[in-house]
Amino acid sequence: MKKIYLLILSALVLVLGSCRKDFEPVTTVQLTLQLEFPDSFVDGSVPKGVEVMLRNNITGELLKTKTDDQGKVVSTVIPGTYTVTASKAYSPEETSELLGSEVEMFVNGNLSPVIVNEEKTVSLKLKSSRAGGLVIREFYYSAVTSYLYDGFTEIYNNSNEPIRIDSLYIGSTRAGATNNTSATGPYNFLTAYPEEVYLNQVFMVPSTGQPRFLEPGKSLVIAISGLNHKSDPNGNKNSPVDLGDADFEVFWDYPTGRDIDYPEVPNMIHAFAGSTAGFDWNIGINGAGMVIFNTKDFDKLPVRFEPDAKTAGTTQYIGIPVSDIIDGVDATANATILLSNKRLPVSVDASMTTAEVPLKGRSVRRKVKTVINGRTIFVDTNNSSADFEVNLTPSPRKWN
Question: What average pLDDT does this structure show over 336-354?
Answer without folding.
Answer: 89
